[in-house]
Amino acid sequence: GMMFALESKFYRCCEILFRMILLNLLFLLASFPIITAPAAFSAVVVSYEQPMAKVWQPFWTHFRKAWLKTLPIGVFNIFSFYFGLSLWQTFLAREAMMVKFLTVLFLLFLLSYNCNLYFMQEKTKQRHFFLFRDGFFWTVMNYHRTIGILFFTAVFYFLLFSWWPLFFYLIGLSGPLYFYHKVLL
User: Fold this and answer.
1) Contact at 8 Å (CB) between 11 and 4?
2) pLDDT tier for residue 79 given thresholds of 50, 70 and 90
């Protein structure tokens, strides 16, 4: 009856879950050559701006458009990733709880900043210098709104990845991005 009606919450949840799974699989497919991962990430971000029924065509259209313009952000992501790994090693080596807490806060900030660059690139169409600068300030101003999603996602991955790695392949990227997008915009 009402549970399977097109207006029901159950149907809406199934539609969102299907979209997350499809976008995650498209991201994995488009990121197969690692150099295209920034464009694939940007395409996932932009796909959440489209009407619910449209996923395939907006993803691939944006992916082709964004390939070259997302490369500088991708290079920055690589350096951020290695910087984050070195901080994580520091985190594991320290015994002081305050240092560990601040390290986790900074790593989540770095992750938020990297994600926000993709959101802002599509919204503002700025040159890269201004994008990096304004993205930093935007992240500082909105960090309090996004830290909960980032923290929950990190804990969720940590607990479930060893038990159910299929989760990552189905909604590991697109699921948290959906909620991040809803909170941020």
Assistant:
1) yes
2) very high
